[in-house]
Design goal:
342 residues; alpha/beta; seven-stranded parallel β-sheet; 10 helices; 10 strands; globular; binds zinc ion
């Protein structure tokens, strides 16, 4: 890893067209059985290659082996019926067809561990693996059993912890929990959401991260953002709890958003993955635009703790746009590294 400003993505990258139709969420697989398994591994190789060519320092799996960042994990748990789905409103924002909790949830087998072992064999660079956070999982299904968001989050946290320990043993360097729901349900975050996340990281010795954002660049999210006013101060409600937690790294949306940069000060001392690439636009940032965002962030994050990143996952973007953005992120970080070296 370069000494300072190691770059990474939040997690997802577009899938190859032969694996799943691009530019949509919950895109169905085009292959089946053994062919699907092989296709997923080939996609992991391609996404690794694209990250390496772009000069990304911390490699992610590009979420090539999962249909969706939350539901794929849930579908691997017992106690959940993923055939008879229900429509629920996610983050009070948009309808989605989601699995239903019918009984006690448990992780009877690993979900991503084999994929992580496969990726680990392909590269010596540090690997980051994203898992959904407990609160975001609770918010992405219908609970017909526990009837308590807090209780269900606790059960999910136990299952996530089992998975995280095995991912760590498989050689994953950073385990990240995606918690976009933290930006919506502040009271619950401070009441039980952060505690559930702490349960999920219990006993881990690898680095841990939480990603809190304003969502993919899909219409329901961009419409919601329009209602948030001239300053987005959601982080102000939750970062104090994150600051007190044992989480090592905080991944935040910064570029092209209305988040006041000084809110990053609330997690001073933590490592911060600063979102310097907007995933809600097809316009590819120039390296100088990326550098400008990182420069602003440096007022509130010490250089050794600054990890240039994307605002969120890039799954819904076209492959060309995503790869252009990866290169811009690297080039922008290189500008700042040079400035810091002077
Ligand atoms: Zn995100």
């Amino acid at each position: 890893m370069k000494n300072i400003l190691p770059t990474s993505t939040v997690g997802s990258l577009p899938k190859p067209v032969w694996l799943a139709p691009p530019e949509k969420l919950w895109s169905p697989w085009k292959l089946e059985g053994d062919q699907l398994l092989e296709g997923k591994q080939d996609a992991l190789r391609v996404s690794l290659h694209e990250q390496q060519v772009a000069g990304i320092d911390i490699i992610s799996d590009g979420e090539q082996t999962r249909q969706h960042f939350v539901t794929t994990f849930i579908e691997h748990l017992s106690g959940v019926d993923f055939e008879n789905r229900k429509i629920v409103k996610i983050r009070d924002r948009y309808d989605a067809s989601v699995p239903v909790v019918m009984g006690d949830v448990a992780r009877e087998k690993s979900v991503f561990v084999e994929d992580a072992k496969f990726l680990r064999k392909q590269t010596n660079k540090p690997i980051k693996w994203a898992l959904p956070g407990p609160m975001t999982m609770v918010d992405t299904l219908y609970d017909g059993h526990y009837k308590s968001r807090e209780k269900l989050a606790w059960e999910f946290a136990k299952a996530l912890n089992e998975e995280a320990r095995e991912l760590q043993d498989a050689g994953v360097d950073i385990i990240q929990f995606d918690e976009p729901a933290f930006n919506v349900f502040f009271e619950e975050v401070n009441d039980w959401g952060m505690a559930a996340l702490e349960r999920a990281i219990e006993g881990l010795h690898c680095q841990t991260a939480v990603h809190i954002c304003y969502g993919y660049g899909i219409k329901a999210n961009t419409d919601w953002k329009k209602t948030l006013g001239s300053e987005w101060r959601q982080y102000e409600e939750i970062l104090p709890s994150v600051q007190k937690s044992n989480i090592d790294i905080v991944s935040l949306e910064c570029h092209g958003s209305r988040v006041p940069f000084n809110l990053i000060e609330l997690v001073r001392g933590k490592k911060v993955m600063v979102g310097a690439i907007d995933v809600a636009t097809n316009t590819i940032e120039t390296p100088e635009e990326v550098a400008a965002t990182l420069r602003k962030a440096l007022e509130y994050v010490d250089a050794e703790n600054l990890y240039p990143c994307t605002n969120c996952g890039m799954a819904p973007l076209s492959r060309n746009v995503a790869s252009g953005k990866l290169s811009a992120l690297s080039a922008g970080a290189a500008i700042i590294r040079k400035e810091l070296a002077v």
